[in-house]
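An instance as discussed:

___
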Amino acid sequence: MSRSANADRAATETLGFVFAFVLVTATVGVVYAAGIGGLHDAQQFEQVNNAQRGFDVFAENVEDVRREGAPSRATELRLGGATLGYGDPVTVRVQANDSNTAANETFAMQPQPVVYSGVEDSEVVYVAGAVFRTDGDRSVMVRDPGYLFGPRRTAVPFLVTYPRGGSHSVSGDSTVLVVAHRQSTGFDRFHAGPGADVEMNVTVESPRAEAWRRYFERKGLNVTRANGTVVSVEYVTKRVYVPETVVEFELQR
């Protein structure tokens, strides 16, 4: 074989090696980038899952304060680079009307939510005894507020929450202690007269109104209004009970 042919073959082999190396390098780079992105997304998804589990424990501890009469309960929540703070107050309004008379009464509360945020577009929210998870524009109620709807009696517990020392937030990688302090309790009721019913209307004004709507529908209530921030439902019963507990939240690092 001539020197020219050997040189051509050597050049071809060299070019083939270079093309193969470039192809392998590019493929590894794409796989690496996609893998790192997927790993990052999985880590953030699991971080929000952990926050949701922490809020379940938090909600249980607040129930000890509300139902069991504990003076206070503390819950440790890990931030992991996120922010824990307070959202704008929501409004829950219950209107009760006697079906045979003009008698009526309205009960209302404006609890301030505790909000875990800062992980992409996800949030975990505790408000009015319920826990919500928000991903983008969609909110899901992952723990309900414990309302009881029945043809003979209906109970809508009011849990009024607000921050101690002003509405501040805490951020970073540390853990935060959320302390729930019991402040006061009350009890209201509305009974229908003989042979009458209580025609009740429940209205919730909240950024998570759609999740509230799905909750009320599962409970068998008739939705009369639903938009982005307000949902109203109707229900017929005999007695309406509205126990109220006021709880103050404190964030400690």
User: Anything to note?
Assistant: The first strand starts at residue 72 and ends at 78.
